[in-house]
Design brief:
Four copies of one chain form a homotetramer. The first copy, chain A, is α+β, with helices and mostly antiparallel strands. Chain A folds into two domains: 239 residues, Alpha-Beta Barrel (TIM Barrel); 94 residues, Sandwich (Immunoglobulin-like). Chain A is built from eight helices and 22 strands. In chain A, strands 3, 4, 5, 6, 7, 8, 9, 10, 11, 12, 13 and 21 form a twelve-stranded mixed β-sheet that branches. Chain A has a four-stranded antiparallel β-sheet with strand order 14-15-19-17. A four-stranded antiparallel β-sheet of chain A has the order 18-16-20-22. In chain A, strand 3, helix 1 and strand 4 form a beta-alpha-beta unit. In chain A, helix 1 packs across helix 2. The radius of gyration of chain A is 23 Å and the shape is elongated. Chain A starts with 18 loop residues before the first strand and ends with a strand. Chains in contact: A-B, A-C, A-D, B-C, B-D, C-D. Chains B and C meet through strand 9, strand 15, strand 17, strand 18 and strand 19 of B and strand 9, strand 15, strand 17, strand 18 and strand 19 of C.
């Protein structure tokens, strides 16, 4: 009795994030026309929210591809790629010899009237080396079913694919969890057959994979690898989120995403961290933090030399800040968090009245290299009118 | 990288309903070991929460059967039946000639270590008449693929099935939405081939179907007919729920559920209503409402003759009560709601001190026949110690 | 160190009510510039939210008058009157011989820069008869300290006061809780010294007081009589509210409120009920319920004759509706609730296509006389474009 | 009509904190018998939650002392001291020549049947130097009304008081916000007349005051200095809290609190920070973090050498941890937060199987000296049964 669902045309309901000083309200499910997650664009680029690794019943996932589309729409993602395993088909008893482009096609149909980009992808599923890799922006995934793994990578490249190494730290392949380049990976990189690397997969992060990305100039990726339901795995209804690759793209199009990935313009949002190269993370964070108001504090005895600075976090991740400024704070210890969509009023003891000054923070939950955190600067203009 | 999910073994998280006077907190998702929905047992029977109508990718649903199992586990249901269409197979391009017992078998495997009963079922999918019908407790659904609809019903019965008419008010079959018995339905009933009728399907209810159930002594059924995700369709994270058939069974077993259905011992929980025969609804409601405390109200001038009665609603549905007692209330107008898991303190003006008295309410959101609401009685024992 | 509070200038924070189909989110605390509670204006009148009965440390309350002002501002009330007891001064050991206008003056100062009307009032505090009465719109409360109660009432009237009988059903004065006119009350009414009557006080309601109001043409009042904190007593943070007198006034001014009260244009919002004369309740409810959209339901077989009507409840109270229309519903039993700020999509079986029709409901939680509920009509214009 | 409140005897309602992996639910208001805030005891001492600085109508506060008691009860505090200004009496027009012990006595009465300790206190209110100071554990506050400030301090000491310097960084006294010892303070310290110092007052923190506390061996204090309502100022309904002085006391008694304060056994909970000497902070945090489970992670290829460690934060503050262990993490970057009442599962790459190992973290939101954070160690015992 499916048609009866006409009733409930308001299928995606309104959600409103209540922004409150020092308190973040964890909410759920955005309006269809509103992004659930908020990250600012950076100068020159749009910040697109992408997940390039997920499964459906066409390999070992639990859902029809339509569910992947609706999950992404509810979360307000910009692009997804369904990457069913080419060589691992545990449902083959029920779904025999499937066309390896089928999940892509079904998803594409489902997304037709929505502003969600569906990218044809597949997971090349081999033992280590090289382990698993995703090829995305494929033209025909079926042509990747070949014996020799180098042939597969080359066929993907022939189709113009962007290829990245999946979860190099996966304990099924590396029982110590340490991502490590083997001979074959070097060869793939040297042959131009490997463009990126997952430093985040599902609920895991790898410092070593991050170092490999930086050393080998591979694009930094972080994806969900979802098999079940995103809502359940990441508890969206409690404010959770799946890991995402943020692509800094010239515009919202498949071509621009590909160009962004090939140019290494990405960051990863994982849990309460953002991870990426400092050239992208620093503007991302600086544009996430809005100085809403700055004024000299007054008391009944008159004006002080303490400046109040209201800083709003307009992004969907908390930021943990360590004060590196010359000035001591009147309101916080040196380390404090500005929660997602929260505002902190920071008292700055400038010792004398200053119409302008700079605040400098190390952002402790932002990672630009293993155990390395970027510094940001906020320019403050005091307005006492 | 599915194994990494070992990490998050606490896959289903705790949920707690905060019970508050006059306020219900709509919550979400129960702990794996706790029922999300609460309805009391009634004298002689356990109250089992069942959904006997749902779909998977094996007909026109969007999920692998495992998801149906996990949905039911999260909600704490006692039994489900996956009832994929026998004759409507829109995914046949991908899932060719499927075994009609497959979704049952997959679900059965997934539920193996859980206390969830999986019942083999199928939807007999014909134009009107007779429209759609579910046969549950099947032994082999494949044997129901026959040309003649009476042969199908007879085969189901041969297997010991319980058969019910689905959504007789469906506008695709009855554009006026009025459930109505046709010649063929009378014949099926007379031949003992039709045992129940859905008065509730998804977000619809039919007064006329309810009347047919009462007139023909058919078992009253209400099911979700879910194709997508229960979480999304019924907004569980906002306190919503799918419609359920409550079966009053001797114990929690497949046999007892069958016996309960065959004996017509059911009620339907739909939205904020409970619908069923008064012999089951009245004890269900009376056991839902706990008189926690009753005492004579005092003021600074001494004792009054107003009795305070604290009534807690221990069930998952609100109850809208109309006061039919001889006594006027001191705290409420004649109609008021005791919200799910809420407590109302009702002031009763008994005019003189009474150690015992009865409160009588019509329960306006309980339906025992079209536009007819049951009356309940609560015995009050005043305790002023 | 009070001045430091300059920091937190955003003293009253934003609150947003999330409106969801069938689900009401109980929220808390409005933005300073936004009303926490929503009731529509009715034709010809603004609907003003007022509380005319409350206490401070200047009689037996627990707070300085400023708190009463800030409570009202947070809740977005239009007018309050602090009505400290004239004759009951339990804090006199600490606050000796207080000026009976003091709490008014302090509140007036505190409200100075806000759009909240402060009305000078006092509670005439006598044993029964006549019990307690509030005189509001006073010029000088001190002049009401007189021996003879009739002198007090006459002095109040001389000052132009509006006088109402407080909690006639109070068990300290009437142990049976039954509001009843005594000789002295008749006399006060006949002498034009009693204008209104509380049918609701704090958490109590009196059917008998309601009948007296109707019989004697007294203005219907409902107030909090708050002594402690409104937040705590009524659990605002859980979606609760204090009882309020809704005054239907020509504009938002002290004069118009007085004129509205004198003309008997009020209703009471108490718990989840609205109580008042049908001439005000019916337009209040009809303007609370917005028909957002109406369309003919379609199925895969084409158009049906079932009309879907989306009704949004734009007010802060739930409405419990009983269908009195000629049409049976396809979506609900005859009794259902449209929760505050929720939307219900009602399927109406009109049997044939109708471009226009009327829905008629009895509103079971609205009270126009003891145990009597008003009927409302909603005009439906079907739009299938 | 105050007595009618007998109705709502469940004046303080249940609140339940839902503890969820990685997500903290901000809740509100504990059951009367349950502490709203949770901090573990440390070896040898109970951890008592205290606020030693607050005001009522008896100086410049907005509430009767009873409200202070009920606030503390709702929050589950162990002890409070009302410290009305001795020399600043802005309500003297209404509350003339008040007994300086009155607010204490009223609060004591109100707390009579509760397990809340009320300590007699007063704020010595002078210009700088010495500024404001609180004397608590007074016997008769009236005797502190003296001209010479040293006489006042000496009288307080004669009564056995514990005296601390209030908000030395207050901009009304120090426009640059920098806490600084002046000659008179040195003298007071030398004369044994000053025992403690507020490093936190309301929404302010002072690094310099913290340094003074450490240098001069003054007891570290943090208090609310509340004038209005705690609920409003600290948004308890959104999960906020007032600053508190945690006293590590031998038992819950006035004497033990005094002994604990005199021995300098305190810490301050302020916003999302804990501040104090490392000898108390380290056990406090180590006992806040419960290692619930530790096991070797497995994949389909067998056992790995990655250890999963589930760490639950049983306290009411978040902890921001920086990994200082030799081991890299498989699940988190080096800095992450374990939210209040949340659990994080940390993957530790020990490289080989280890039945026991230690995790070492710097706790970035814990402060043991200006810009200095303590290190904690968690012993891990792997259990793979």
């Amino acid at each position: 009795m499916k048609q009866i669902r006409l009733y409930t045309l308001t299928l995606f309901q309104i959600l409103i994030c209540v922004l409150l000083t020092q308190i973040s309200i964890q909410s759920s499910y955005a309006h269809e026309n509103e992004r659930l997650y908020q990250f600012p664009d950076i100068p020159g680029y749009k910040t697109l929210l992408c997940d390039f690794h997920m499964h459906t019943v066409f390999s070992d996932g639990d859902v029809w591809p339509t569910i992947r589309v609706h999950e992404a729409l509810k979360e307000g993602l910009d692009a997804i790629s369904i990457t069913d395993h080419l060589e691992y088909q545990p449902h083959e008893k029920d779904i025999a010899h499937p066309d390896r482009n089928r999940s892509y096609q079904i998803a594409l149909d489902a997304a037709q009237e929505h502003d969600l980009i569906i990218i044809n992808g597949a997971e090349i599923t081999r033992d280590m080396p090289p382990g698993h890799a995703n090829a995305i922006f494929l033209k025909d995934a079926n042509k990747l079913i070949k014996e020799d793994v180098f042939d597969v990578f080359r066929e993907a490249k022939r189709q113009g694919a962007f290829i990245f190494w999946n979860h190099p730290h996966w304990i099924a392949h590396k029982p110590d969890g340490i991502a490590e380049l083997m001979e074959m990976h070097h060869q793939l990189i040297n042959d131009g057959l490997l463009d990126g690397i997952e430093i985040v997969n599902d609920v895991t992060y790898s410092n070593e994979a991050m170092q490999i990305a930086l050393d080998q100039n591979l694009t930094i990726m972080g994806n969900s690898d979802i098999h079940g339901l995103v809502d359940w795995s990441y508890k969206l209804y409690k404010g959770g989120h799946r890991p995402l690759t943020l692509v800094f793209a010239e515009d919202k199009s498949e071509e621009s995403i590909k160009e962004g990935l090939e140019s290494g313009r990405t960051a990863v949002w994982f849990n309460e961290s953002v991870i990426g190269k400092s050239e992208f993370l620093i503007p991302l964070i600086e544009h996430s933090l809005l100085v809403k108001r700055s004024y000299t504090m007054k008391s009944y005895t008159g004006e002080s030399s303490v400046q109040a600075v209201e800083i709003e976090n307009k992004s969907s991740t908390d930021y943990i800040l360590e004060n590196l400024s010359d000035f001591s704070l009147h309101s916080h210890a040196d380390v404090f968090t500005i929660k997602t969509h929260g505002t902190e009023t920071v008292g700055v003891m400038t010792l004398k009245k200053m119409p302008e000054f700079e605040l400098c923070f190390k952002v402790l939950n932002a990672v630009v290299a293993p155990n390395t955190h970027p510094e940001i600067n906020l320019k403050i203009h005091v307005n006492d009118d």
